[in-house]
Design brief:
This protein is mostly helical. It has helices at residues 2-13, 21-45, 49-55, 62-66, 82-86, 91-109, 116-136, 140-143, 158-170, 175-178; strands at 15-16, 19-20.
Length: 195
């Protein structure tokens, strides 16, 4: 065993042109830690409301609409921000969401949605993309805060209690099926089933 360790140590200390293998491994590790720290810091910075409304020019579009909803201001003081609803918490899903969001940044940079008028033209397709995503993941971002198991149906209106308990019992519907437009204005819904 000692002989094996000595061979390994000599291999690590052997020069590889200019640097020893050990120096390269340690240097690579340190560079990896620095890269990962920078990457994670940038990722967290892009998960702030301030970043969202500055980069996507949403301040005059969706953010203004959000300000008029219960998700922005309510009796309990709990507020949902852009990333709470639009960025998954799980790391792999978060990265996928960031890659998809790059299309929005591209659209803003190249003038597809950089004005209110252009945004309104594309509003329905943008909303439908988000509804499809939420339907596919069973409204996970909604359920990070809202959970059927903790709802007190006796405190809800009769209609809401009926709808929530039916959805809970059937397991077929998810939040976005009934709550389109809960945080932003609905686009023109002509031709959409159930509207």
């Amino acid at each position: 065993m000692k002989k094996l360790l000595m061979i390994g140590w000599k291999t690590l200390m052997k020069p590889s042109g200019y640097y020893s293998l050990g120096a390269l491994v340690i240097g690579g590790f340190v560079a990896g830690v620095i890269f990962w720290g920078g990457f994670n810091t940038a990722l967290e910075f892009t998960n702030t409301e301030e970043f969202c409304i500055s980069c996507h020019s949403m301040e005059s579009n969706s953010y203004e609409e959000l300000k008029t909803t219960i998700h922005f201001s309510n009796r309990s003081g709990v507020r949902a921000t852009c990333p709470d609803c639009h960025v998954p918490h799980k790391w792999t899903n978060k990265i996928a969401a960031k890659i998809r969001a790059s299309k929005d940044v591209w659209g803003w940079l190249f003038g597809t949605v950089n004005t209110r008028e252009k945004f309104l033209v594309h509003r329905r397709s943008l909303a439908e993309n988000e509804w499809r995503r939420l339907k596919a993941n069973d409204s996970l971002e909604c359920r990070n805060c809202h959970n059927f198991d903790y709802m007190d149906f006796t405190e809800q209106s009769d209609r809401a209690a009926y709808q929530h308990s039916t959805a809970l019992a059937s397991g077929e519907k998810t939040c976005i099926d009934c709550h389109k437009g809960i945080a932003h204005q609905l686009p023109d819904m002509k031709g959409v089933e159930g509207w």
